[in-house]
Write a structure and sequence with these properties.
Layout (H helix, E strand, L loop, with lengths): L3 E4 L6 E2 L2 E2 L3 H10 L4 E4 L7 H10 L9 E2 L1 H12 L4 E4 L24 E4 L8 H11 L6 E4 L5 E4 L2 E4 L2 H11 L4 E2 L5 H11 L6 E5 L2 H10 L3 E5 L17 E3 L5 H8 L2
Parallel strand pairs: 1-4, 1-12, 4-5, 6-7, 7-8, 8-11, 12-13, 13-14
Antiparallel strand pairs: 2-3, 9-10
Helix pairs in contact: 4-5
Length: 262
């Protein structure tokens, strides 16, 4: 029985600045039917408050507590495992979600106990990537923390690289394995389930990324549903992982739920 839903945002409820057809109706339906749900996103380009504002502008209702992002998950991990200064390679606005974390100056090349990587888009210049590398090569060696391992995402102008390629470059250069605190890591999905107060076998993840959303959820024991919107490509259905459910779009969810949730 499915009793709780984890739902990606970009590519599922909206694409760029446009809502996916039927998204508002589905969210209103979930609220009306009192279906437990959380919005889980690898977005690190903006803080949770800005995500709520964006959803509101699209007439989609959500509160900050309904949204789990990698910076929120990373803040908890950093406090527990690496107390001390962190070098944050995230947009300036997103730094507000790292509450209680001692943040190094944006030009520092030493002194970090953790190097945290998010999606900073065009700011990934050679010098910025090399600064992260120099920080990682300091002794004692800092932790490398990845805010998700999304490979790319769909923008209005086309596909765009996300954080994973830069994490992989630094893992190779610094001979370090990153701690991943975003999709597809099991720790991130576990935090989402805890927030949802739901066991893995009772939940379903809905996303447009067959690896980050579907495979990540399945490895955490959660059913994975793939939508044919956002970054979806037909080749996503040609090999493993195999989604448990495939929707043309999020608009198909209420009918499926009525037939399969119990």
């Amino acid at each position: 029985m499915i009793s709780g839903l984890l739902i990606d945002l970009d590519g599922v409820l909206y694409q760029g600045d446009r809502p996916i057809s039927g998204a508002k109706v589905v969210v209103d339906w979930m609220v009306q039917e009192k279906i437990p749900h959380r919005f889980v996103t690898n977005t690190t380009s903006k803080p949770r408050s800005a995500i709520v504002e964006k959803l509101s502008a699209l007439q989609i209702s959500a509160a900050e507590k309904d949204i789990l992002t990698p910076p929120i998950a990373a803040t908890s991990w950093l406090k527990e495992h690496t107390p001390g200064p962190a070098a944050l390679f995230v947009p300036e606005a997103t730094k507000q979600d790292f509450i209680g974390i001692d943040q190094l100056p944006s030009d520092a090349e030493s002194g970090a106990v953790a190097v945290v990587l998010g999606d900073i888009g065009d700011r990934w210049t050679f010098s910025e990537l090399n600064r992260a590398f120099r920080l990682l090569m300091e002794e004692p060696k800092p932790a490398l923390v990845a805010l998700g391992m999304t490979r790319y995402w769909q923008t209005r102008s086309g596909l765009q690289l996300d954080v994973a390629p830069f994490v992989k470059a630094l893992e190779y250069a610094a001979d370090r394995e990153a701690v991943v605190l975003g999709k597809p890591s099991q720790e991130f999905f576990n935090q989402a389930l805890l927030s949802l107060d739901c066991d893995a076998f009772e939940a379903m993840m809905i996303g447009d990324d067959v690896v980050g959303d579907v495979q990540g959820a399945q490895r955490a024991g959660i059913r994975g549903a793939l939508v044919k919107t956002g970054k979806f490509r037909p080749r996503d259905l040609e090999a493993d992982p195999i989604p448990d459910v495939v929707f043309d779009s999020i608009a198909d969810l209420p009918e499926w739920w009525t037939q399969h949730s119990h």
